[in-house]
Design goal:
The protein is of the alpha/beta class and 532 residues long. It contains 16 helices and 20 strands. Helices cover 32% and strands 16% of the residues. Helix 1 packs parallel to helix 14 and helix 9 runs antiparallel to helix 10.
């Protein structure tokens, strides 16, 4: 006789994905145990408390849309919300829908093992708790496993060290100190200006210059907010039709960059630059189609850097090379202007990498720099890192790290063959980080809930993707990526920031088409899956 589960589902993670998943399971009468390594809800916004941390999707879109009452009740203060406000929002949602009671906090998943005989998942934590469940739902997030470089001498440095993805909750006072920031990706670009305002001296170590455009953040006035709330359904529908599941506040220009005169291009780029944020990539319809067309936008940004940064040598070091947009475009609040401050210095480590950390600081190219504190703005083991760190073993003893040794393979970014009843919310193979994550989260949670309900109504206990469906989906993801400039960059989309990680482009390009695929799967009664 088969063992009975303790609960229907285990949900790993209490960020926006885990919270909505828990809400839907409760709403549909399914029992669930949540597990969260933090002390409260919020996910990435619980951990990323570094100075200047803010969202790069506008507040009115980076928010839940499943409840109109929630949409109408909550007021945002800025066009782009900062981390403290987003965390307050997450706590508000948890309070409104009573989501905390079923979560075990301050608990990390040590292992998740599939029991073939009983068709159950056994999930154990570092608190000693073990939960047996029919379904395992991984809501661990795309950017939650921090990536800290393994420099020689890491233990030797006598000062303080911090990672932007695991910031002290009571903040850090850099007043009068000599501070180093290693990394100039999104978190570094956001953190550097406020740290520079406080630190006695700030030295930025840059390996690869990143493209960043001004966020043009500003208070969100009542008039704008009320107009959106009065037409929220239409506003959301516009966002869902976008290739990135947001952008209802600006228009995508379908015109070819080659059809504009140099004067028209400059004026158009200027308009989108002044509007701010991701909209810059919507300035022409074919910026991501060819390197030649993309270069027009690249040179416009480089000219902006040369115009803003007073020291010509520093300006050239800050000028990125290669394609704009194949890495996630950064948005900033005065990043380039920061390098005009006399207490801010830039060290290029592209040709002479950091050799080691010393007792006093950082050594590179035969020079030792002394610091009181070092900030690692070195990003994350994106998309797969948080999943692989949970030590997941599927049917017949198949380990997820072995299944994905050459890169993640799955069906829809949601299910991987050999791991029955396991779902990966916004996982590799879905639009995930290429789209508005909260919209993708809601889409996945609703699909998973509907699939579980359908399978139970048919008398099934086991759900798994067919191998052929997985193979076909991986080919589809690769084919779509190959038609873009995304694979031309060494980005975290490919895992290029993590030594030894397979170079595979992981997200699915194109949100509306992905949505249609999910609808087709449902309409065809999940024909590409097997049930038992």
């Amino acid at each position: 006789m088969k063992s009975e589960p303790d609960v229907d589902a285990v949900v790993v993670g209490a960020g926006f994905g885990g919270m909505y998943m828990m809400h839907l399971l409760q709403q549909h009468g399914l029992t669930a145990q949540g597990i969260e390594r933090g002390s409260d809800v919020g996910g990435t916004w619980y951990w990323n408390r570094y100075p200047g941390c803010q969202c790069d999707v506008e507040s009115m879109e980076y928010s839940y849309q499943f409840s109109d009452e929630l949409q109408q009740k909550w007021d945002w203060s800025k066009r782009y919300a900062g981390q403290p406000e987003i965390l307050r929002y997450a706590n508000h949602v948890a309070d409104e829908f009573n989501l905390r009671d079923n979560f075990l906090f301050d608990a990390c998943v040590n292992a998740a093992n599939y029991d073939d005989a009983n068709e159950l998942w056994s999930v154990s934590t570092d608190t000693g708790t073990t939960v047996n469940a029919r379904y395992l739902i991984m809501a661990t997030g795309c950017l939650s496993a921090t990536n800290t470089p393994d420099f020689p001498g890491m233990a030797d440095f006598a000062g303080d060290t911090y990672h932007t993805g695991n910031w002290p909750h009571d903040g850090v006072d850099f007043s009068g100190k000599k501070v180093a920031v290693i990394g100039t990706g999104s978190s570094g670009i956001q953190a550097i200006p406020p740290i520079a305002q406080q630190a006695g001296e700030l030295t930025v170590f840059q390996r690869t210059a990143a493209y960043t455009v001004p966020a043009q953040n500003k208070p969100l006035d009542d008039k704008t907010q009320n107009e959106i709330k009065a037409n929220y359904a239409e506003f959301r529908a516009m966002g869902r039709m976008s290739p990135v599941a947001f952008g209802a506040t600006f228009s995508f220009n379908p015109m070819s960059v080659f059809d504009a005169t140099p004067e028209e291009r400059k004026a158009n780029f200027e308009e989108f630059w002044n509007f701010g944020g991701f909209s810059f990539l919507a300035s022409y319809g074919d910026l991501s189609a060819t390197v030649e067309g993309n270069e027009f936008a690249c040179e416009f940004v480089r000219d902006k850097i040369r115009e803003i940064v007073k020291d010509p040598e520093t300006a050239e070091l800050l000028c990125p090379q290669g394609v704009i947009g194949c890495k996630r475009l950064c948005s900033d609040n005065g990043y380039y202007e920061t390098f005009n401050q006399p207490n801010v210095h830039l060290v290029d480590v592209s040709t002479h990498p950091i050799d080691r950390l010393t007792v006093n600081g950082i050594e590179t190219n035969g020079v030792e720099y002394e610091f009181d504190a070092i900030v690692f703005a070195t990003g994350y083991d994106a998309l797969t890192g948080s999943l692989l760190r949970c030590n997941i073993t599927g049917a017949n003893g198949l380990k997820l790290e072995d299944k994905w040794s050459a890169g993640p393979t799955n069906f829809l970014g949601l299910m991987t063959t050999g791991f029955p009843n396991m779902f990966t919310m916004t996982g590799p193979g879905s639009p995930s980080a290429l789209a508005n994550l909260i919209t993708g989260i809601e889409q996945h949670a609703e699909f998973i809930t509907q699939l579980i309900q359908w399978s139970q109504s048919q008398g099934y206990q086991c759900i798994e993707a067919e191998q052929g469906a997985e193979d076909s989906w991986v080919e589809t993801v690769n084919t779509r990526a190959a038609k873009t400039l995304y694979p031309t960059c060494n980005s975290w989309y490919l895992g290029a920031n993590v030594p030894g990680k397979p170079r595979v482009f992981m997200p699915y390009v194109g949100f509306p088409e992905y949505s249609e695929k999910l609808k087709t799967v449902v309409a065809e009664d999940y024909a590409e899956m097997r049930f038992g």
